[in-house]
Structures are given as C-alpha cells and as structure tokens.
Amino acid sequence: MEQLVQYVAQVQAFTALGLGLIIGLGAIGACIGIGIMGSKFLESAARQPELVPMLQGRMFLLAGLIDAAFLIGVALAMYFAVANPLLAKLGGAG
C-alpha cells in the first residue's frame, strides 16, 4: 500500500513538471511567433501602405491560429491536471 502511494505521488510530480513545460514552452513559442509576425507586418506595412488592409486581415488570422495552437496545449495540460489517465492505469494495475 505504501508503495502504491509513492507511485501515485511520483506520477503526480512528473505530471506537474510536464504541465509546466507544456504551458511554459507553449506560451514562449506563441509570444515569439506573434512577435516575429507582428514585426514583419509592420515592415511590410511601412514598405507598401496600400496593402495594409489585406495584410492586416491575414495577420489577425495567423495570430488566432498561433493562439489556438497554444490553447490546445493548455487544454491538454488541464486535462492531465484534472483527470490524469496515468493515475487510472496505475490504480488498475494495483
């Protein structure tokens, strides 16, 4: 019984580390991606101001897609935080 408790604690600890990595690296990646895309938009808007309406729509579309990818990672991380399937497997084995 004591060994099962140790396994459960270890799975929860590794899950917490994984959640931090998923959310942290996903946020960093989304910020860098939106920053690079925004800088390229400003460069292109300064070079050809007549294309700003078309470029602006595409920039917002890409910003939404970048944020959606990050939020999918957050949703997956929250799934593991709330209903961890690894703990279910551990409980079934014991």
Automatic annotation (TrEMBL):
Transmembrane region(s): 12-38, 59-82
Record membrane topology: Multi-pass membrane protein
Function of the molecule: F(1)F(0) ATP synthase produces ATP from ADP in the presence of a proton or sodium gradient. F-type ATPases consist of two structural domains, F(1) containing the extramembraneous catalytic core and F(0) containing the membrane proton channel, linked together by a central stalk and a peripheral stalk. During catalysis, ATP synthesis in the catalytic domain of F(1) is coupled via a rotary mechanism of the central stalk subunits to proton translocation. Key component of the F(0) channel; it plays a direct role in translocation across the membrane. A homomeric c-ring of between 10-14 subunits forms the central stalk rotor element with the F(1) delta and epsilon subunits.
Domain V-ATPase proteolipid subunit C-like: 17-79
Alphabetized UniProt keyword annotations: ATP synthesis, Cell membrane, CF(0), Hydrogen ion transport, Ion transport, Lipid-binding, Membrane, Transmembrane, Transmembrane helix, Transport
Family of the protein in this entry: Belongs to the ATPase C chain family.
Gene3D superfamilies: F1F0 ATP synthase subunit C
Cell compartments where the protein resides: Cell membrane
Chain positions of site Reversibly protonated during proton transport: 67
GO molecular function: lipid binding; proton-transporting ATP synthase activity, rotational mechanism
Keyword Cell membrane: yes
Protein's recorded name: ATP synthase subunit c
GO cellular component, one term: plasma membrane
Top-level taxon of origin: Bacteria
Organism: Mizugakiibacter sediminis
